[in-house]
Amino acid sequence: MPEYSKIFHSFRSCYYNIFHIHPVYSRVHTARFFAGETDDRLERTAQAVAHRKVDQMLKKSGLLQISGTWAAGLEGDLPHGLAFAAACFGAGFMASRALVFGDLAPFGIAAVTAAKKKALPFILLGAVFGTVLPHGPAYPIRYIAAMGAALVFRLLCAGMGGRSAVYAPACAAAASGLTGAAVVLANGMQTHDAALCFAEMILCGCSAYFFEKAAPFLSQPSKLWGLRRRDLVSVLISFCVLLLALQPLAVHGISLGRIAGVLAILIAARFGGAGAGCAAGASMGLVLGLGGQDMAPVLAGYGFGGLIAGFFAPLGRFGCALAFVLANAAAGANMGGSSQVTADIVEVIAASVLFLLLPDKLLCRLSALFVAADERVSSKNTARSRLMEASQALRDVADTISRVGERLATMRSDDTLQHVFDEASDRACHRCGMRAYCWNTAYNDTMDAMNHLGVALRASGTATRKDVPKHFSGRCCRLGELLEAINRCYSEYTARNAARRQINGLRRMLSEQWNVIASFLSELGESAVTKQVDLAPEPVRAAFATCGLAAEQAACRLDEKGHMSVEARVSTYPKSPINRTELAAELSVACGRRLDGPKVSLSGRETVLRFRQKALYQIEYGQYSIRKSGEKLCGDAAFAFEENGRAVLLLSDGMGVGGSAAVDANLAVDLISRLLRAGFGFSAALRAVNSALMLKSEDESFATLDIAAVDLYAGAVELFKAGAPPTYLRRRGRAERIVQHSLPVGILENTGFAHSDIRLGHDDLLVLVSDGAAVGDDVWLMRAITQFEGGSMTVFARDLALMAKRHRDDGHDDDITVLAARLEQA
C-alpha cells in the first residue's frame, strides 16, 4: 500500500485507541481469566471488536466517507493531492486569522461550513490551528465549538437531503449566533456585546454564502478563466477575507495585506474598466476596513480610486496607477496629516510600483478574471439577430415565390384541350353557315369527333383526315381549314405547357435555393451563440509570449459540448523554428486543457496557428476502389477528413457507370465535404447537393450518399444515408449490419437523410461500401470484418474489395468501393 494511503489508516487507528481500545481491552481481559486465552489472542480479539465498532461510528457520523474520499483522491495523484491539501489547510488557516472589530473571527466558522467533503478535513484542521495560535480571537474555545456545531448542522441538513444555497449560510450563522450568545450571557448581557454578536452572525452567514460559491475554484483553478459576474464577486470577496488576515503584518503602520489589496484593485481597473475597478475598490475597502478601528474612512477612498483608475485604464498601466494615487491622495487630504493617512499613501505608491513592475505574462493571465464569459457571448447577439432576420426574410421570399406559382396555376386552369378546339373553331368556322348547327344543334356529335381528334393529337401531335369520324367528315365543308387550325392551336398549346412546366420547375428550384441559403444563415446564427463561447484571450497571448511569439489576435473558444479550441494570428513568424510541443504545453497550462496542434496556415501576411483540445480517440482510414471492367473511370467517390474533433467518412455511388456516374459521385462528395468543413449541418448540406444534382443537366442525374460522423471525444457515431447500402461495423468483437431505407439525392425536390446513432470504442471497426460490394449474401463480409486482427486499413479495404469482386454471383459487373476505419485510444 502506498505511504500516503497509510496516512488515512493511521488516523483511523488514532480513533480506535482514543475511543474504544482500552474499554474493550478491559472487558476482554476480565474474560481471559475464565477462558485461559493468551495475550496475543486477547490483543487480536480486542482490536477486531474495536475496529468494527469504530468503523460503525465513523460511518454513521460521515467522517469515514469524508476521509475515505480524501484518501482515494490522494491515491490517484499524490503531488496534486498534497498541493490540494496544502491549499485547503492554508485557506482555513487564513480565514480563521482574519479578525474583525478587534478580536472576532467569524470567517473560520464560515470556511468550515462552506467546505466540500474532500476539502473539509484540511480546512477544519487549518481553521483550528489558526484559532488556537497567539494573537487570534478572544475566545478560541468558543470558535472551535462553533465549528463543531456548524458541522453537526450541515450533517443534519445533508441527512434531510438539503442542498439549497441557504443551508450553508444558515448553519454558519446559527453556529456563530448560538456560541456568541452564550459568551454574551456569560459576560452579563451588555448591549455593545450583543450588537457585536449579531453583526458577527450576519458576517458569518454572508461569508459562508460567498465561500461556498468560490469553493469550486479552489479545487479547479482553471475555472477561474472566464468567470461570470456573480462568480467573480464571490471570488473577490473571498480574496478580500484572505487579505484581511495579512493586514496585521505591518511595519511602521504599512500593511502587506493592504498593499496586496491595492494591487488587486489596480489589476481590476486596468482590465475590467471603471465597473470592475469600483467593485474591487469597494469590496477591499469594506472588508479591510472591518479589521481596523480607524481604517474605514481611509479605505473608503479605495472605491473612488478604483472608479477613477478604471476611467483612465485606456492610458495603460502608468495612467491607471497615477489616477489611483491622485484619487487616494485627494481623499486623504481632507483627513489631515495623520500617520495612518501617510501610511495609506505609502501603501498605495508601493502597490502602484509593483503594478508597473509586474511581467506582462502574469498580467495577461490575471486579466481574464475581469472579463466575464457571459458578456462575451452577449456581444454576439446583434450578429445572431441579424443572421436570423436575414434567414427569415429569405424563407419569406421562398414562400412568396411558391404562392405566386400556385396562384398562377389556378388562374390558368382553363387552358386545356377543350380550349384548343374552341380557339380552332373561332379561326376556321367563323364564316361557315353550318357553324350554328355543328356547335349548337349537333354539339354532341361534334364533340365526339373532337375527342377522336384529341386522341390522335396526344398520340402523334397532329391530326389528319383519317382521324376524323365519317359522320363529321361528311358534314363539314371546311374540314381542311379546321384541321389546320386545330394542329396550329395544339402546337401553341403544347409549347405553352412546356414553357410553363419549365418555369414552374425553375420557380421551385429557385424557392428551394432560397430555403437552402436561409438554412445556412440560420445555422450560422445559431452557432454565433449556442455553439461556442469565447473565453479571455489573455492566457493565450501570455503563452505565446513565453515562446517568443507576439499574438496580435487570439481566440479561445468552447463549443456546445465543452471542447476547447484556440486560434492565434501572428504577423511576424520567428526565423528560428519554434518548438511546437513546448508551445502546445504552454497553452495547455494557460487554458487548463490538453491541446493538440498547431495547424499552421497563412492568411495574407499573417500566420494562423490553430490548436484543438486533445481527443480521447484517434481514427485510421483505408480506402480502395475497383472500376467496372472496360471503364476508364470509377463511378464511386470516397473521402474522409477530420475537423474540430470529428472524423467524417463520405461515400457516394453515381447513377450507372463510367464518366457520368463519376461526375455525379465526385460532385456530391466534393460539395458536401466543403459544406461540412465550413461548419454547416448535414440537412442543409444535403439540400444543397440535391439542388446541384437536379440543376446539373437536363438528363436524369442522381447519386447515393453514405456518411459516418465520428465524435473522437466520446466515440459517438452518426450515420446518414441517402439511398446507400448497409453499413457494417464491429463492436466488442462482433460484426453488425445497419440497414436504413432512403432515396438517393437528385431525384426529388424534397429529400432527406435516414439517420441513426451508434457508439464505438477502442479497436472497433466501421466499414462503408458501395452497391457493387453489397450484392447478394454478405455473410463473407461479416466474417471478414469479425476475423480482422489488425494491420493497415488500406490493405484491409483492398482485401474486402477484391473479395467482393470474387463473391459477385448475379452475372453483372459494377464499380466497387470500400471505405474502412478503425477507432483507437489516443
TrEMBL record:
Zinc keyword on record: no
One Pfam family name is SpoIIE
Q: Where are the transmembrane segments?
A: 82-107, 119-135, 166-186, 232-250, 262-290, 302-327
Q: Which UniProt keywords apply?
A: Hydrolase, Membrane, Transmembrane, Transmembrane helix
Superkingdom as given in the UniProt entry = Bacteria
Catalytic EC class: hydrolase
GO terms for MF:
protein serine/threonine phosphatase activity
Per UniProt, residues of the PPM-type phosphatase domain are 616-823
Report the EC code(s) recorded for this entry.
3.1.3.16
What's this protein's name?
Protein serine/threonine phosphatase
User: Which species is this UniProt entry from?
Assistant: Ethanoligenens harbinense (strain DSM 18485 / JCM 12961 / CGMCC 1.5033 / YUAN-3)
